[in-house]
Amino acid sequence: KAGVTQTPRYLIKTRGQQVTLSCSPISGHRSVSWYQQTPGQGLQFLFEYFSETQRNKGNFPGRFSGRQFSNSRSEMNVSTLELGDSALYLCASSRGTSGSGTYNEQFFGPGTRLTVL
Amino acid sequence: AQKITQTQPGMFVQEKEAVTLDCTYDTSDQSYGLFWYKQPSSGEMIFLIYQGSYDEQNATEGRYSLNFQKARKSANLVISASQLGDSAMYFCAMNSGGSYIPTFGRGTSLIVHP
Description:
The complex is a heterodimer. By secondary structure, chain A is mostly beta strands.
């Protein structure tokens, strides 16, 4: 079974630009979550998509947006980039339908390392 | 609200020895799940082990075991016979309240010395 893939793996952008990151989940998984990881803030949840709908959202400004396609692939967009957006962006896929939700093992991709200059 | 606390920013262990990474959690829900992930320098988060709040036995997966003490709200990860490849960041996480989104701790950096 193929794992979670993320493209691109590395990106360098300048302030004010926008960027789109892509995530392909494990086949059969309908939930895709996005996280931002920085040394200072740790791992922070951005949003989760399930069956093409945003089901959960973290506490990030509207510059961060996402979408999910019918094949469960997901994209994340960041507009008007700021220096503080430099981070490792991780995508995680899961079945997302585990009854009470307590066992919802997430499988992570290798991440996209974004540098904003 | 749920919270995960990992109090050890960094840990060192000699190769072939066992090491315990601490994790305490806080939730008002009776049903919850606890996870441990490993993140090598490459960046990918690797799932290690899961413990459900109603599981009576401590979870084990190969060299990994989870020391689950419900009354103390702790879910420590024990790695037996450490290997150089175990050097990585380790994150404790929890789902509760029917949420599909886990809360992660700040992580513990483990360095295994030869």
